[in-house]
Write a structure and sequence with these properties.
The structure is a homodimer of 227-residue chains. Chain A is an alpha+beta fold and 227 residues long. Chain A folds into two domains: 145 residues, Jelly Rolls, CATH 2.60.120.10; 75 residues, Orthogonal Bundle (Arc Repressor Mutant, subunit A), CATH 1.10.10.10. Helices cover 42% and strands 22% of the residues of chain A. In chain A, the strands form three sheets. Chain A has a four-stranded antiparallel beta sheet with strand order 1-8-3-6. In chain A, strands 2-7-4-5 form a four-stranded antiparallel beta sheet, with no helix packed on it. In chain A, strands 9-11-10 form a three-stranded antiparallel beta sheet. In chain A, strand 10 and strand 11 form a beta hairpin. The radius of gyration of chain A is 20 Å and the shape is globular. The first copy, chain A, starts with a helix and ends with a helix. The structure holds a DNA duplex (30 and 30 nucleotides).
Chain lengths: 227, 227
Amino acid sequence: MNKKILRRCRLFAGLDDAALERALSLLAAREQSYVRGEFLVPVASPMPAFGLVLEGQVQVLRDDRDGHHMIMANVGAGDTFGESLAYLGRLSPVYIVAVDACRVMWLSPARLADPASLADADVAALSFRFTSMLAARALAMNDRIQILSQLTIRSKINALLSQFAAQSGSDSFALPFDREDMAFYLGTDRSALSRELGRMRREGLIDFKGNNFTLLSPDFRAASDGM
Amino acid sequence: MNKKILRRCRLFAGLDDAALERALSLLAAREQSYVRGEFLVPVASPMPAFGLVLEGQVQVLRDDRDGHHMIMANVGAGDTFGESLAYLGRLSPVYIVAVDACRVMWLSPARLADPASLADADVAALSFRFTSMLAARALAMNDRIQILSQLTIRSKINALLSQFAAQSGSDSFALPFDREDMAFYLGTDRSALSRELGRMRREGLIDFKGNNFTLLSPDFRAASDGM
DNA sequence: ACATTTGCGTTGCAGTTGCAACAAAAAATG
DNA sequence: CATTTTTTGTTGCAACTGCAACGCAAATGT
């Protein structure tokens, strides 16, 4: 049952059981459980390993100079955190907290970050997967930056929906967010988001029910044809 | 003179001349010049190589469904673009334009993305550098996301200045932006930024002249001590 | 079936901010 | 040094949006 979740992660996707075992051993995998509210990683601590959430959810948080703490990311089952820090051996500028009771697998990139050990074919294959994971994450962060850079809520919504439409190849699709997560992802207020979504629906630009969205506007189509 | 610029990039930093030559050959380096306004990469095209700007500046742009194009990034000398796309072999969702006349070195990650060739020690060493570059970029993007996620301009300014203060180890430092770039980086309007900077100066929170900023507030210190 | 929790939409309000247009200052050019 | 160009600050205005509070409906638990 663990394996199923592990394979949802790009790092392990498509590996057969034997290869998965080898990969886990190369990464010195070990599991650990946490109770709700527990700190997985305190701020300014070394990160010898990165985490893969097997169950539950963790939050990556960061504090400002003025004491406010802000959510950097929500990490759910099958998702990872801290790969870059662990790979570079940096101290963590963030701290990590269990939202629910959760189970995390810790994976050490030490072998991957040692050029000498890449001579081993297994390590090389895993390194390729790891780098691909980083690259994919960079692209995902790029998408998020594009959205967050928009100046108005409406533009943010448009940017988000455009991305999902492009990605799903259809003008109807489901978002993997509830409204609160969606507002957080857009960097805005939940109620303001609801208000703007309602406005856009009244204007006939979009339709939605729960997390199922449909792009309606003929403007949308015209503009994308033009490209 | 090229070498000096190349070594400003994490991928090549600290290499001696011989190693640099080997690295360039492994990456099938080739140079190309562009005139102002020229397209380096059109949208939806394959990216067999990523770019390292040797001279001038390029912009990474992206179009929304509604036809607005937005600046994703400004890339200056010594900086790279498209590594993730090239590594993953994805089609480019963005297009790239020369802001000035510029010279770009194209580098192909094909050897790095092939696990079999990692058996070669030179390739392995370069692969390590490449992955480190990706990881460092991910951290930088994280910083930017933290800033863009702030809900008010003042919080964005605080977040940005805090990061630079922490990074420079001092409360006085120079930003590498002019006001327009700074506003873009913060995802806000230039005039609104000027207004808020002025307000913060009047309140005695910060001081600045040009791009030289100083954090003044005793609040700042008190809050950071608290951590 | 009832009580409780959770998620989502609505609204009043005040402060913020995008926007456009202009003024002032600084830098570049000749 | 004078002139042009670029950068930065200022301001009025309208619209946006964060915020808090509330209502409603669906889901959950007992």
